[in-house]
Each structure stands twice: as C-alpha cells, then as structure tokens.
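ok new one. same drill as before - structure tokens go in, u give me an amino acid for every spot. 184 of them this time. try not to just spam alanines like last time pls lmao
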C-alpha cells in the first residue's frame, strides 16, 4: 500500500521510518556508472520577506536518465515491506503526464563473497501522475520488492533515478525529500 496524503505516518504499529537521517537529499553521491548525476542545489523561496526558506533539491532531467546514490547501514527494523518515499515538484507545466522514478538496492552482509563484484538487485519503479501546474508539490511511495534480501546490519547501496524512457512529463523533476520506510 502506498503512502497517501493525510495518512498518519506516525502510527508505530503500521509504519516505521527506518532511516531518519542517513538518507537525505544532501547526503547523496553522484551516480558512478550507467547514470548521469542528478544535479544538487539549494533554492531560495521567491516569496516576500527578509528571511526566506531554502529548499535542497535534486533535479532529474527529462531527457537523460539521471540519478543519485546513497550508502547506509540497515537499522534494526526489517519486518514488513520496504518502501521508497519521495516528494517534489515539476519545473515545467504538465497536463495528464507521468514521471517514472526507479530504485535499485544492493545489500552486503557478513559472509558475502565477492564484495567488489556486487551488483544491484532488479529495478523497482513506479509511474506517478504529476500535477498540471509547474511548481505544485506532490509525493509518492512504492514498495521495493527487489531488495536484495537486505537484513539487519547489512550495508546497502541505493540508486534512485528518473527513467525518462518510461515517462512523458516535461521539465526537471525537482526532488525535495526522500526516505525509506518499513510498513508492516
């Protein structure tokens, strides 16, 4: 089940946020091979006021598969389904268009052989209908069914990218939030 707007994500018996700090927009690495790096920047609100909010973003282009990579250690919660949550806005106006976000996970645990030759599990992805107006915030989540048998204490590498061959949205997808969650 995907997380929907207005859903209480603090209900401990339903949903557990498993990576509160390690996976964050500003803690990502540029993609190393097979992907162009999504641009990282910080934008300042154009609203009135002397002190203005700033928002870190990852900009995923609409013509080239671009992504970022995060490395983290799996915490003590691994029961249930692992979800990728992301939120952001489109830089361009889109009428009845979708953006496709994809993720791959590679887990390394005690006893794994050939660590230097580790490969990602199969791609997990989901298309999301985007708002018509540019700059309108939206959020989405999808289950990582291909999670490379990740378990407590594993070191993991997560690649997240926009699959432009499978979406038709115009303009950059500016991601403002990303997280992994476990849902029972």
């Amino acid at each position: 089940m995907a997380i929907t707007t207005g859903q209480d994500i603090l209900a401990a018996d339903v949903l557990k946020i498993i990576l509160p700090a390690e996976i964050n927009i500003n803690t990502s690495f540029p993609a190393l091979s097979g992907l162009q790096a999504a641009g990282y920047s910080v934008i300042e609100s154009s609203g009135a006021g002397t002190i203005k909010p700033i928002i870190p973003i990852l900009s995923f282009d609409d013509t080239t598969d671009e992504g970022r990579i995060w490395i983290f250690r799996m915490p003590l919660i691994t029961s249930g389904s692992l979800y990728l949550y992301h939120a952001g806005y489109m830089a361009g106006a889109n009428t009845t268009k979708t953006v496709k976000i994809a993720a791959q996970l590679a887990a390394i645990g005690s006893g794994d052989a050939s660590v230097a030759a580790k490969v990602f599990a199969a791609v997990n992805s989901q298309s999301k209908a985007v708002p018509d107006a540019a700059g309108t915030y939206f959020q989405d989540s999808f289950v990582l069914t291909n999670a490379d048998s990740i378990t407590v204490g594993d070191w993991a590498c997560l690649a997240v990218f926009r699959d432009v061959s499978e979406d038709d949205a115009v303009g950059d997808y500016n991601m403002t939030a990303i997280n992994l969650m476990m849902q029972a």
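Confidence is low (pLDDT under 50) at residues 1-22. and btw Residues 15-183 form a domain with the Jelly Rolls fold (CATH 2.60.120).
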